[in-house]
Write a structure and sequence with these properties.
The complex is a heterodimer of chains A (about 110) and B (about 120).
Chain A (H helix, E strand, L loop, with lengths): L8 E5 L4 E6 L9 E6 L6 E6 L2 E4 L4 E4 L5 E6 L8 E9 L6 E2 L5 E6 L1
Parallel strand pairs in A: 1-10
Antiparallel strand pairs in A: 2-7, 3-4, 3-8, 5-6, 6-7, 8-9, 8-10
Chain B lengths: L3 E4 L2 E4 L5 E7 L6 E7 L5 E8 L5 E2 L8 E7 L2 E6 L8 E8 L8 E2 L3 E5 L1
Classes of the chains: A mainly beta (about 110), B mainly beta (about 120).
């Protein structure tokens, strides 16, 4: 059972900033929050990972509030090539070991 | 980032045959590997988790005798789809992680299996 909730789809235009929010109300103390990008017929690609506050890398920023019950992936200036499905994952220790369950993801469509 | 190599990228087989998919971590040792399957327009579904040198742990509803997983070394895991049927046609993706990377998974490029 996935522990995350994201919007099913989003639309944006080239050059705009896109923010995708993920809810993870039952996040555990040791869980990290990780975001992946997937193009059709490819394996997911790591985007960014964080534990709390803000993390920034060359492609995105990740904002995590103090309660860690949600997180927001921010893509600064999207292009057509950012059209993909974005997944938010948190660690799942329910099985006694660390397994990661994918939620439905957010299908982002970037328009010219 | 770390590289996970998955082969073959695409395979077409006849119903009743077995297909083996390999997943290798090229520049790191993978203590744990995961196997997912994905149907069109759907999310990834975790099939099983394998730790090097031990038996795989299968998710509920996944037949362990049909989907044989072997994780014989820290860099190689294989998934064998035995007696494949058309309903097994899917996109199979492996991923690997090490303790040092927390929940950061590195994914293979996936294998599109088509069973005729």
């Amino acid at each position: 059972l996935a522990k995350t909730t994201q919007p099913i789809s989003m639309d944006s235009y080239e050059g705009q900033e896109v923010n995708i929010t993920c809810s993870h109300n039952n996040i555990a103390t040791n869980d990290y929050i990780t975001w992946y990008q997937q193009f059709p017929s490819q394996g997911p690609r790591f985007i960014i990972q964080g534990y709390k506050t803000k993390v920034t890398n060359e492609v995105a920023s990740l904002f995590i509030p103090a309660d860690r019950k949600s997180s927001t992936l921010s893509l600064p200036r999207v292009s057509l090539s950012d059209t993909a499905v974005y997944y938010c994952l948190v660690g799942d220790w329910s099985g006694g070991y660390n397994k990661l369950i994918f939620g439905a993801g957010t299908r982002l469509a970037v328009h010219p | 980032g770390a590289v996970v190599s998955q082969h073959p990228s695409r395979v077409i087989c006849k119903s009743g045959t077995s297909v083996k998919i390999e997943c290798r971590s090229l520049d790191f040792q993978a203590t744990t590997m995961f196997w997912y399957r994905q149907f069109p327009k759907q999310s990834l579904m975790l099939m099983a988790t394998s730790n090097e040198g031990s038996k795989a742990t299968y998710e509920q509803g996944v037949e362990k005798d049909k989907f044989l997983i072997n994780h014989a070394s820290l860099t190689l895991s294989t998934l064998t789809v035995t007696s494949a049927h058309p309903e097994d046609s899917s996109f199979y993706i492996c991923s690997a992680k090490t303790v040092a990377t927390n929940e950061k998974l590195f994914f293979g490029s996936g294998t599109q299996l088509s069973v005729l």
